[in-house]
Amino acid sequence: MKAPGLTPSCVILAGGLARRMGGGDKPLRPIGGRTILDHVIARIAPQCSTLALNANGDPARFAQWRLPVIADSIEGFVGPLAGVLAGMDWAAPQGEWLLSVAADCPFLPLDLVSRLAAAQRENDSDIIVASSGGQAHPVIALWRVGLREDLRRALVEEQMRKIDRWTARYRIAQIDWSNEPVDPFFNANTPEDLTAAETFLQ
Predict the structure, then answer these.
(1) Is the bond preceding 59 in cis, omega lying within 30 degrees of 0?
(2) Domains in the chain: how many in total?
(3) pTM to 2 decimals?
(4) Which end is more exposed in the chain, N or C (fewer Cβ atoms within 10 Å of the end residue's Cβ)?
(5) How far apart are CA 21 and CA 83, in angstroms?
(6) How many other CB atoms are found less than 10 A from the CB of residue 107?
């Protein structure tokens, strides 16, 4: 089935452990006087019909953003596919498509949804992945929500953890953005990345 004209639901994936940042919540780190999460929401909210945050632990730390906070349904921090599944379960009553984005990407493109949706219509794909400079970013993607039970079985019964192994089973399209002058999918993983992001903002 073709992608609907309506904008998709979106889940912002913030369920990681941020080991390279020394732990804690990467999206709550400041860049340019605002949190990374503020930047992500500002860029992605106008492109989506509804927005939720995938995060584990106490949801109260995200209360100021007034978003639904959905935890992984698969325990044990098994990776971003668990966050995608949580997003699919949340989005299922709302529509056929889910956008997932990373919570540590403050420069997401303003044409993300329109280009991913156009690629879906052209290719009738199940999953449409963003890339920049030829490098895929598999957590930044448009997903057919109808794949959720397949994904649940893969996570629980097959112990599937690698995104590429699972997505290879389906019809995939990949859409590329330029990574100049700034990669729109730059993600802040380390303290040095935060310094670089401040420079990019300036």
Answers:
(1) no
(2) 1
(3) 0.92
(4) C
(5) 20
(6) 17
